[in-house]
Amino acid sequence: MKEKNIDTTEKLTPDEQSDDKRQQSRQPESAAGALGMGSVSESDDAPVGSLSLRQIVGGDYLMLLVRNHAWLIVLIVLITTIYVGFRYQCQQDMIEIDQLEKNLTDAKYKALSSSSNLTELCRQSHVLQVLRANQDSLLRVSDQPPYKIEVPE
Predict the structure, then answer these.
(1) What is the pLDDT of residues 83-138, one digit of tens each?
(2) How far apart are CA 124 and CA 145, in angstroms?
(3) Three-state SS across 89-102?
(4) Residues 99, 105: contact at Cβ < 8 Å?
(5) CA 97 – CA 10 distance, rounded (Å)
(6) Angle formed by the axes of helices 70-122 and 60-68, to 10°?
């Protein structure tokens, strides 16, 4: 089969020109149809997806938004509630920790004070003062230094 080469410089017959125009005019219609814009015309008052001020103020837009995103709104409220609850619990725990640290510090100071009082009461000079105050004459301070007694094994 031989292919027919058409030279663009040749003149087309009136029938061929009308066929060519029909093909060119069909292309935009098919593109508009493919985009889903076949039902839109210039005489339409408002585009299909737009909302008027009356619809927005009347609450139609908000109701549409709530209907479409109800589960998302519920999820956000739930997560926010959990977040606030955990923060409150954390603050309560921190207050309790501070109180326990304060009690621990007080207990340490009391233990230190008691230990120092016990050390003071156990000193030799204080024991002698108590013995003199009670008129106990059996115990006295030795005048001689201590000495070692060696025991053979």
Answers:
(1) 999 999 999 999 999 999 999 999 999 999 999 999 888 888 888 788 878 876 67
(2) 16
(3) HHHHHHHHHHHHHH
(4) no
(5) 97
(6) 70
pLDDT in tens, 41-71: 556 555 556 767 787 788 888 888 888 999 9
- Which tokens sit at 148? 């070692």
- Cα torsion for 15, 19, 22, 28, to the nearest 10°? -150
pTM over 0.85: no
Q: Are 40 and 48 in contact (CB under 8 A)?
A: yes
Return all residues near 29 (Cβ < 8 A) that are at least 6 apart.
38
Distance in Å from the first CA to the final CA of the chain: 136
Angle at 131 between CA 129 and CA 132, to 5 degrees: 65
